[in-house]
Amino acid sequence: GDAFEEFQKQVSQWEKDGILKRFPDSSVCEIRDSFRPNIKNNKQRQKELNDGERYKPENIQIVPINSPKKKQSQVMYYATDGMGSIPQAIKSDSSFKLNQDVWISPSNGVKYTGSSDSSSPRWKVQSSGKQWGQFDRLIIAHNGKCADRIMSRTPAKSFHSLLRTNFAPYVPEHGGNRMTLNSIYSLTFALRKNGKESVLGGKIPGNMYSCFIKNEPNLRFLSCNTRKYSSSSSNDDNVEVWTVLSSAKFGKKYKGPQENLPNELVKDVTGQMLQSLERSIGLEAGSLWNVKDAHVGGGIVLDYKLQLWGAAVPLNTWSSSSTEGGFLYDAENGVGACGDWLLHPSIGGAWESGRRLANWIVEDLEDRKKKGEGSSVGLPPDGKFVRSVAASQAGIASFK
């Protein structure tokens, strides 16, 4: 819509620059069950699917959703060199200095030095004993436990109250009282090809790159890295690489310490996700993962990497009645926040939130010069959390 007009322009520019590509027609699909009409057990089967009870798909369908034949078909994009190419493109268009791979401790990495004079530094940033400098504005562009802890010892109490986080696979219809993030497992695995394709590739039509999984309670999304990046020089003709994402309910049930997942948990979750994928697409049990002799190197699965996204997708967004929305700004303490949880649970929401905050800070500096004070935006009690129906349904982001 109009709220994302600037982002739409940016996407068009990224496409022109080769940063993004459009998914070819009919290359994005849904894997789902065909619940035929007038079948008595349809409602019971849908309940089993929704509740995550043991569920065996029947009448499996793989249906394209970005087909030009569909009236409401969406134009979809993917990054040509992976998701990292988007922040790299943003950096290349800017003159600011970027320090990457810097861990700012949530306990002592940020300190408020204090000053109401906009010309004086207010925030000191350090990591591992190294001083990164003093700054008159601090921006929190992530969320979760670390963002909460970073701001917990500062005077920006009202601002900090919105950074407190719940972790759950759902939120109540009224939106809840805190930011709520789900947790998702991401499993990337390499399969041995048997001729032109792997056992999994043989089940998914060759023109399809990515699939939303609608018939298996443990999973939400499947994508073939090899097909998306078929021109990559690193591709091995005998190997096919896939990535599958879990449902939030599954992620919550098997959640572990994401920085150091225990080996037994990794093996258990990997096995369950591959077995769930077998059921979803109608493969024989053991086609991808055999419980008895599961190991890497000797079977169809040549290698795999499991990651837990502990603070994955916001299931609600903060909505304030401020004239400006989509970000937070505490003018008194010189700190702001941007992110998808403040506007829309998507890449577009995160980008647009950051753009709006940056523009507001520029205006705030001008106001201070003219009026001697700035204006805050979006702080409580002015606002409430609103449930994102689309994000809750898709589980991995909002696509609407």
TrEMBL record:
Q: Which InterPro entries match?
A: FAD/NAD-bd_sf
Name this polypeptide is given: Amine oxidase domain-containing protein
Q: Which organism is it from?
A: Ditylum brightwellii
Q: What is the lineage of its organism?
A: Eukaryota, Sar, Stramenopiles, Ochrophyta, Bacillariophyta
